[in-house]
Amino acid sequence: MSDLLRNRMSVRSSKRDSTMLSSSPSSPLVFDKELPEVLNLKLTVVGPSMSGKSCVTQQFCLGQYVQEHEETIEDVFNKKCEINIEHPAHRTVTSKRSVVCNLELIDTCGNIDTMNNMSRESISNSDGVLIVFSVGDNDSYSAVMTYYDEVQKIKPLVPTVVCANKIDDKVLISDTAIMVVAGACGKVPFIKTSAVARVGIDECFSKLVNEVLDRNYLCMMDSTTSEETVAARKSISQRLSRVFKK
Fold it and tell me: Under the cellular component aspect of Gene Ontology, which terms does the record hold (predicted)?
């Protein structure tokens, strides 16, 4: 990683943290609505071709590893599961430790350049988005910001988690590099996974559901994104592409 990129990320992170701290007294946590008995959510999975996003989705829904052979156009899976509630404030209000979820998962096409209207509509109607990339592919990694920016254009502020997949294979992307791109994506959570060994798969979707809970049921009064922040993300995306495609 270049010193310029590291310094820019440090400055941006400091500004973001100071903004959040300064706004805390006037932006208390509030509960918009009660958690339902069963939570119905639509989640969309996006990512570059050969990142293993279809394998991640099918491992979670079907409990088995299905090797990808053909490029996905769009597949839909349904899964009913119980998700542990991570945020203590939710548990305080609801007295629940978990929530039953009916999840509809949309596995989209892999190439962002040919993302069809069906995929864009799926993102627009989604409660949360999972961005999958391969830790064994620099191009896959450098595409994460491009996917994030595109998702934000379609549905701003949609809850998002980054999935660093294929940790069972040759690893080229370090944890530090993953944290850099997650920070560039507004400090979204990231989970390291292996669809082959079923490592981190459940945690990945559990984290995304909890991000949806935090956004929709426990939110800050002021959750807007400044034009400066949006511009910074786009700038970082361009620099990442130059750095990691060399």
Answer: membrane
